[in-house]
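Record passed on here:
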Amino acid sequence: MPPKIDQSERRREVTEAAIRILCKAGPRGLTLRALAEELGGSVRLVTHFFPNRHALLDAITRQMIEDQTAEVAAMDATPGLTDLERLRRFMLWLLPTSALEMMLERSRVMMSAETEAHFDVHKLFDAWEASMRALIEEHVAPLVPKPQLPVYVDLMRVLQNGVVLSSVEHPNDWPPKRQAALLDLVLTNLSRAVSHSDTRARKRH
């Protein structure tokens, strides 16, 4: 009797293969046939789990967000971190400080240029953006007054996107040390601004 196949594990293999294709070939390259070839099987193997491209992209979106959320939760579980250290660690995790991360970010930038032509991929990016902003907000919220939270979330998101784009366009100019130095400068000024704001608020009362 052949060994029983874990359906959830097999489904995950399919979505992981699809993510690899997206990274290598962009939205145009993600077809059911290309995915079957990546898996070394037939199209029927893919359609058994995902009847069409729309269902496949929905699954990719969910898996990417679930994996990201779980990884951040594990990282945040480190004992003894201050709120500022927790934010710094998270923001460094978002930056392309390794060759693998650089490759993934280069692929993401390439895919983003095609979102308008591929509405289903556009939806993936919308979901990814919402998830990313929620995680940033979670890490920034303990550090800033609530009325200022949206603008600081914007600041962290723009910082991340700016460093990513600069690193993709000029990788030799943006080594990990320079990325970390820019992040530390922003976080130092954030901490000072919040501290100054708190001092002024106490004086008024």
